[in-house]
Write a structure and sequence with these properties.
Largest sheet: 3 strands, antiparallel
Helix content: over 70%
Distance between the termini: 75 Å
Number of helices: 22
Order of helices and strands: EEEHHHHHHHHHHHHHHHHHHHHHH
CATH class of one domain: Mainly Alpha
CATH superfamily of one domain: Tetratricopeptide repeat domain
Length: about 450
């Protein structure tokens, strides 16, 4: 095993400790990224104090011994968790990948490192790469629940739903817990079983420790299931419990914002989403704010906000010029963002890029169908919306969009039925979407 030829250089960046470790000159520089402070709203929590201490301990271990592979792996895992909590996936995914790639150069068959690398790829929306790495790990250890969870996620995103179900069954048979129950819930949801999805997500929440990020994430997802089925009071209760259990939880504020939006309290909804946006980096909060500013009769602010979302998504996409496989694929998100500034040609460009990357995924087909609908190409839209409905998803937004597309494609009866079904499932659909079909439902 080769040793580092140069001593460690410890650099301080405004309270953040960074390690810069140099290898032999013929190799790439191995960087350990500094830990960022969390936002003020959550930085005083006991969880953050413990996480920070643990990470600082791992950094100290690497200063002492740059070849400490256990410390490298644990630091990568810690950074993956920081990405989940803070939403700063661009920064922490690259930080984790740097550690993992170095470790895998030394130990190509390190199961834990391969699993983590697959998780980072999935986080970056590099689903094909993530599945490939996960399959390598599976060959090394076919009895690990976590790796089956990653394969559930990869297969869902790539549109192989039968394989995703098989992987989910394997996962839960090995370890029935929050992670496996939550994946069962999602698979039931996209196959049209909302009742079963709610049951499974309740089991996921019950399996977790209140206040932990993954537990409250599951509770938020449970709330969203209730929200999608029109039970907004129950959904609101889920969001308030999550916020009580985990102070400053951005996704709880976002949930409350959607409840305010459903009740047409747009100013309060804006306040909730602005809180969420300050707490966690997530483009979806800005995307929701664009709609809310328009509903609140602030068109200039809506347009400016939409442009900011586009700039952020473009900046975060494939941000590491040294490695074309590093960086987030954000084309589906960009397609929707461009629709909101009426740049339909750019929306189509990005929708097609995403479609060519994963043509079997139902969400990607829905996106492409909706872009074609906005372009007035209704026959094309109908083609892709049919694929989007292949799993029998009962998502009311999907059904309502499908109804609009069917109407414009000449299938009036089917279109009316789909829109009415969507409103039966969730009478609180977004006003922007409902406004598209008011004229059709009024004249049926």
């Amino acid at each position: 095993m080769k040793k580092y030829l140069y001593p460690l250089l410890v650099v301080f960046f405004g309270g953040m400790i960074a390690l810069i470790i140099f290898k032999n000159k013929e190799k790439d520089e191995f960087r350990v990224f500094p830990l960022k402070e969390r936002s003020a709203a959550v930085s005083g929590s006991g969880e953050w104090v413990n996480a920070k201490a643990a990470i600082e301990g791992l950094l100290a271990a690497l200063r002492k011994n740059p070849d400490d592979r256990k410390a490298q792996l644990q630091l990568a895992e810690a950074y993956i968790q920081e990405a989940r909590i803070t939403g700063d996936h661009v920064y922490y995914d690259e930080a984790a990948m740097e550690l993992l790639n170095d470790l895998l150069q030394k130990e190509p068959d390190n199961f834990e490192a391969l699993s983590c690398k697959a998780a980072v790829y999935l986080s970056q929306h590099h689903f094909t790469d993530g599945k490939e790495i996960a399959m390598q790990a599976l060959k090394l250890n076919p009895h690990n629940a976590y790796i089956y969870g990653l394969l559930v996620d990869a297969n869902v995103e790539l549109g192989d739903y039968k394989e995703a179900v098989k992987m989910s069954d394997k996962m839960v048979s090995i370890r029935p817990d929050l992670k496996s129950y939550s994946r069962i819930s999602y698979l039931r949801e996209i196959h049209g079983d909302y009742k079963g999805a709610i049951v499974a997500m309740k089991m996921a929440v019950a399996s977790g420790i209140p206040g932990q990020e993954q537990t409250e994430w599951a509770r938020i997802f449970l709330g969203h299931l209730y929200e999608n089925t029109g039970a907004i009071d129950t959904a609101e209760l889920c969001y308030r419990i999550a916020l009580e259990n985990r102070a400053g939880y951005a996704y709880a504020y976002a949930g409350l914002g959607r409840i305010e939006k459903a009740n047409h309290n747009y100013k309060d909804a804006i306040k909730d989403f602005e809180k969420a946006e300050k707490l966690t980096s997530d483009y979806s909060f800005g995307d929701e704010l664009t709609d809310l500013y328009r509903l609140d009769n602030q068109p200039e602010k809506a347009y400016k906000n939409a442009q900011a979302v586009i700039e952020k998504l473009n900046a975060d996409s494939n941000s590491d010029e040294r490695n074309s496989k590093t960086g987030h694929y954000s084309d589906r998100e960009l397609a929707y963002a461009y629709l909101k500034v009426y740049k339909y040609d750019m929306a189509l460009k990005h929708a097609l890029i995403e479609y060519n990357r994963r043509p079997d995924n139902i969400d990607v087909n829905e996106t492409l169908a909706w872009v074609y609908y906005k372009l007035g190409k209704y026959i094309d839209a109908d083609k892709y919306i049919n694929v989007a409905m292949k799993t029998n998803s009962q998502n009311p937004n999907l059904l309502y969009r499908a109804g609009l597309i069917k109407m414009k494609s000449g299938f009036r009866k089917d279109g009316i039925a789909l829109m009415e079904k969507a409103l039966d499932i969730n009478p609180f659909l977004s006003p922007e979407l409902k406004s598209e079909g008011i004229q059709f439902l009024a004249s049926k």
